Amino acid sequence: MLYNILAPLSDEFGLFNLFRYVTFRTGGAIMTALVVSFLIGPAMIRWLKVRQGNGQPIRDDGPEWHLTAKVGTPTMGGFLILIAVTLSTLLWANLSNQFVWIVLLVTLGFGMVGCADDYIKVIRQHHSGLPGRIKLGVQLLVGAVATIWVMNALPTELASGISIPFFKSVLINFGWMFVPFAVLVMVGASNAVNLTDGLDGLAIVPIMIAAACFGIISYLVGHSVFANYLHVNFVPGTGELAVFCGALVGASLGFLWFNAPPAMVFMGDTGSLSAGGALGVISVITKHELVLAIVGGLFVLEAVSVIVQVVSYKTTGRRVFRMAPLHHHFEKKGWREATIVIRFWIIASILALAGLATLKLR
């Protein structure tokens, strides 16, 4: 909004020229989202505690200590992330950019699915929420609408193409198959982040790291000079997504303040589904879908651990892990929560650096 109002006045007021720069507005988005989180966080947590009573229901088949240490903690803290990200993006982004609205559509759409799921869990005081078919169906619908919008917004030569990491400007045209592929990326990323969110602070830092990486990728891919130098596909207009990514980084930092062990609030599906969906759609727009699997490798590992566990148990009757997702396996082995969380953060950082390295290693 500030860009649309103040940037046109830069010829008369030189100071307003700052609003033309994506980097300046990204910094503003980070700080705004952080401040919004700090300002409304305490009141929102108090409100959630009053409304939810017993807080998020704790699974009785999980690690035993969760039943005592985490009982009574409110969920749906993802609302804090959604509010901070949305307000910051609307304030600092160029609102005439279609990609900004597409990312907000997916973020809020997936967030509402997560909100319904969390609400049902709290009302029933049971870990089963929204029926799986409805949950997945709405995600697929939102993802399909977003994909078609993305294809119409992109240049024709990029609309249905998928780039391959480590190869210079390679783009494979998937044709109509690009729609299910892009939807799979969004829904897969959303649910992978959701599976990772099982310990205090575990998911929010990798979300922040991945958002920072895709902020850099969005800026570089949307800048013709940098894109040509790095031999990546130039996608006009994607630089504006750096502002959204900055807002997500700031909101994540703010949420971590309240979610650090011992957590005052859980993000719930409201936060995890929306954040994962946002990362997924940004990767689709910037043509870095496969790089997301590297940058968000921790989320992939968590999701794969669940798939392996289910397939193994149904086919052989044996479990590969003591418990899935993967972080619960290490809990069952006796690792402390803080040890698991920090080591997973380290893994997420290493994978993020590896993902960024693909920009140059071509």
Name the features.
362 residues; mainly alpha; two-stranded antiparallel sheet; 15 helices; 66% helix
**β-sheet strand percentage:** under 5%
- Share in helix: 55-70%
Radius of gyration: 20 Å
Domain count: the total is 1
Q: Output the strand order for the largest sheet.
A: 1-2
How many helices? The count is 15
Largest sheet: 2 strands, antiparallel
- In terms of per-residue confidence, which ranges show pLDDT below 50 for 5 or more consecutive residues? none
Strand and helix order: HHHHHHEEHHHHHHHHH
How would you describe what is shown here?
- There is one protein chain.
- This protein is 66% helix and 2% strand.
- It has 362 residues and is mainly α.
- The chain has one domain (2-357).
- Strands 1-2 form a two-stranded antiparallel sheet.
- The longest helix has 31 residues, at 22-52.
- It is globular and about 60 Å long.
- The model has no long low-confidence stretch (mean pLDDT 92).
Question: Secondary-structure map with pairings?
Answer:
Layout: H1 2-6, H2 22-52, H3 66-69, H4 78-92, H5 98-124, H6 132-153, E1 161-163, E2 171-173, H7 178-196, H8 204-221, H9 224-230, H10 241-259, H11 268-285, H12 289-295, H13 297-316, H14 326-332, H15 337-357
Antiparallel strand pairs: 1-2
Helix pairs in contact: 2-4, 2-10, 4-5, 4-10, 4-11, 5-6, 5-11, 6-7, 7-11, 7-13, 8-10, 8-11, 8-15, 11-12, 12-13, 12-15
In short:
The protein is 66% helix and 2% strand. By secondary structure, the chain is mainly alpha-helical.
